[in-house]
Amino acid sequence: MKAKNLMTREVATCRPEDAMAVAARIMWERDCGVVPVVDGEGRVIGVVTDRDLCMASYTRNEPLSRMPVRDAMAKEVFTCREEDDESAVHAAMREHKVRRLPVVDGERRLQGVISLNNLDHELARRLEPR
Question: How do the pLDDT tens digits run along the chain, 130 residues long?
Fold first, then answer.
């Protein structure tokens, strides 16, 4: 199966200049642990996780509302393409030790996110008795 058939398409994003509180609110409202960070053209330039936000606040002793996302986001982002098959997606996650991959087009514009949870749901669907 292709990544485009497994990914979550409706993904909220933030910008590097947004306050970390914006990313935290997205995570709370969307019940997710990662938010892709995009530039003005919608290209993925980073990702920020709930752990990134928590550790930034703790180590700097500052509220999330006073720190920009750029200070906590991972700038090295591993991605996949919509046409990648699930074995390639799984291999990339395993190789880079990540649980989620932004799905991008040829210009790195965000198309969706694929997570271990997406892969797990597909496996469970396949294992259901017919």
Answer: 899 999 999 999 999 999 999 999 999 999 999 999 999 999 999 999 999 999 999 999 999 999 999 999 999 999 999 999 999 999 999 999 999 999 999 999 999 999 988 888 877 787 787 7
- Which pTM value belongs to this model? 0.90
Amino acid symbol at 2:
K
User: How far is it, in rounded angstroms, from Cα 99 to Cα 61?
Assistant: 28
Q: How far apart are CA 76 and CA 4, in angstroms?
A: 22
The torsion region of residue 31 among left (phi > 0), alpha (psi -120 to 50) and beta comes to left
Tracing tokens 């930034």 back to the chain, one arrives at 56
Helix runs in 1-130, H state only: 3-6, 20-30, 50-60, 86-96, 116-127
